[in-house]
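Working notes for the structural subgroup meeting. M.R. asked for a predicted model of this chain before we commit to crystallization trials. I am recording the input and output together here so anyone reviewing the notebook later can reproduce the run.

Input as submitted:
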Amino acid sequence: MSGAVASSLPLVLVGIPVACAVLVALTGERSRNLRDAWPIAAALGAVGVGLALAGPALDGAPRETRLWEFAPGIAVAFRADAAGLVFALLASALWVLAAPYAAGYMRAEGEERQTRFFAAYALSVGAALGVALAGNLLTFVLCYELLSLFTYPLVTHRQTDEALAAGRKYLAYTLSGGLALIAATAWLAALGVDATFTPGGFLADAGLGRGTRWLLFGLLAAGVGVKAAVMPLHSWLPSAMVAPTPVSALLHAVAVVKAGVFGMVRVTAFVFGPALLVGMGASTVLAIFAAVTLLVGSALALRHDNLKRRLAYSTVSHLSYIVLGVALAGPIALMGALLHLAGHGVTKITLFFVAGAIHAHTHKENVSDLDGIGRQMPVTMTAFTLASLSMAGIPPFMLFVSKLYLGWGAADMGRQVFMLVYMVSGVLSAGYLFPIIIRAFFRQPRPAHDEHDGHAEHEPHAPAPERRAWLMVAPLAVTGVLTLVWGLAPDTPFGFLALAEHVAEAVFGVSPVLGGGA
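Returned structure, recorded in token form:
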């Protein structure tokens, strides 16, 4: 693979959401329509720049922007390689749909401080894009920490005691993870190690002792493991569900948790490298943590009646599909992990969009209250059905494709036990999602005065006008369809399959499909 080519485009991509946040703040309440239009325009611009960067990345000449050097060999740099573009294109594409959805939701709910909300939302997307395009560990850590700070006002947006407590917990976890990353980055700088992300890892030839390697692995894995919600570092995620639903969608699909699992990709494939991880035995340790999280998260999702909390534990589980994929240290599994990152993003944002639309229309939050909701909201619940089929890994949906590669990758590496873990979790996914579909379409609605509730159905205001309702319904309909379209054609139009294959070949030096990994 040839070296990076100097270009301003990576910085432009990261800067677009930052400029959007400034425009949102300057527009404010003077023109709500213009304020809410800025994120849509910015998201479309980000998609365009991302697509312009994809071709050079696939050609082996990724574009790079170097800003300044703190010290010789230690610089802030953004590089649009194939791995980063999987995350960046996903975040940009979903932002196109999340922006109008968030505007419709915030207006329907009559939320306060909307200007601050949309400005922080844009900054969070910008930080996520910075994580995606970070060219080295220093830049990654800077953007990773900014992401925690920018998302804090979103988690605490409603300023209730519960929201503030969730925000404190969120910062305690994420900033602690950030401190671990800072410590590892400083240590590597003190050791004189060039921490530029390199396919196959830059530590393999660094000449470090076994103890040093393990300590660095512990710091880096824990640092990204917080946002990846690997147990026991996961509890902040369900607590953060007190935030408005567009924030939940951002946390689960676009920014925070995806930054965590993408960080696992960087740590395993670009810092340590598969050969070193396997030689240390660290790949097995990480795989065990991921497998436990994967199964326990699915089991906990079965227990929760609150829809958003059920979806939160589903996220905890599915993030570890990706962590386990990279821990398997094989080309096919790595390819599956990157595809799962993209597929889970579009699938989970659909499910949270649906949860928000249900709440805005009926103020129902519990699964047990959703009898007959499919007749009242057919488009919304059809999108939920499509996304649920994807989550369960039903062909030909997007997550079937990624799970196919993940299971194949486990077998290819001779670790069939982890293939079984994936299969069991798929059954559990169906167990906590399919009953919602049955309730929605095949049960009669509950009477307004139901003994189960003990009070009348809560509808403090009439349903939102059609125009506002479709600001929410249209995006979730599109993402629901995309769970199927990207399963049938994963490269349409962003090249997720091609990018994932390129990353696996760069890391392992062999075609993931033709070369195998055993």
